[in-house]
Amino acid sequence: MSDLIVILGPTASGKTQLGCKLAQFVQGEIISADSRQIYRGMDIGTGKDLEEFNINGVQIPHHLIDIRDPGYKYNIWEYQSDFIDAYNLIVEKEKVPILVGGSGLYIETALKGNTYTGIESNRDLRNELAAFSNAEIQELWAKIDPKLKDTLDNNTVPRAIRAIEIDQFIKENPNWKKPVYPKINYTIFGVDISRELRREKITRRLSERLNNGLVEEVENLVKNGLPFEALDYYGLEYKWVGQYLQKNINKKELFEGLNTAIHQFSKRQMTWFRRMEKQGYHIIWLDAEDEMDAKLNHILTTFSPI
Checking CA distances to 33, which of 43, 86, 247, 300 falls within 20 to 30 Å? Predict the structure, then answer.
């Protein structure tokens, strides 16, 4: 039996729409598993697709979207706590929690907890690493315990630094014990989209977003006090549009460079999901090209709620 449905997939796979349709059927509520959708005012670049949460005039309840202001450095350990709070709230209402997202790190944290929550930041180490280049940080990442790498990631410099920090702490404190995380029964469904269709949808969606407010969204963030140098933290779209607004690249270079970067990111997402399978997570894959009713029927006939 399960008490949580998980819907994961790479960017542009249609997982949000599927999650919302499913929530309508099972009296569910969505919990976002996205590292950027927690920020207010970052709608287009993070792909919140908020219109999909409204089905025939009925709003699908959702959690962990628009909970922090830009500029705040939200982290995985806060997400762990926020997820548990949202999950418990939904269960108390006797609704079905549905975790939807493309961040493998956030999904794994929600399902089994991040065992390194109790390890405090090492300010001295962080001050030392602040002078390191990205390449030097990645060299240090390459040297950490391989088993630790399987539970963390280096997609951003802050995450790589945190991994280095944890690795150093564990080596210096060999008697440290992992905290206990509440057991959650779950069923994972993945949206499997072909490489060709994924590339087509990513390119089309990027064009639509650039023509429908993405640049203006980033302009507003900067006008409201978010410095250009902080944009990299919030992901590819904000990084590349920031470069464009500073006139470091032209519109063509923006589209081509960002398009390539998103394709590469989607491949990394799939790599993470395949690695989850190797680690023992059972993912039931659904064909993205199947009709919505077929995908829903597959989920509804598989999922066994408490």
Answer: 300
**Residue 11, annotated ligand binder?**
yes
Q: Where are the beta strands (DSSP E) in 129-220?
A: 186-192
Q: How many domains does the chain have?
A: 2
Q: Verify that 81 and 156 share a domain, yes or no.
A: no
CB atoms within 10 A of CB 168: 15
Reported as a pLDDT band with limits 50, 70 and 90, residue 304 is: low
The annotation status of 9 as a binding-site residue, yes or no, is yes
What range defines the domain where residue 199 resides?
4-114+180-302
Helices 104-112 and 76-92 pack at an angle, to 10 degrees, of 60
Domain match, 90 and 130 both = no
Is residue 271 marked as binding? Answer: no
220 in the same domain as 106: yes
Whether 207 and 77 map to the same domain: the answer is yes
10 has binding-site annotation: yes
- Consult the annotation and say whether 13 binds a ligand: yes
Per this entry, what is the length of the chain? 306
What pLDDT score does 1 carry?
A: 46
What phi and psi values does residue 52 have, to the nearest 5 degrees? -75, -15
Reported pTM: 0.82
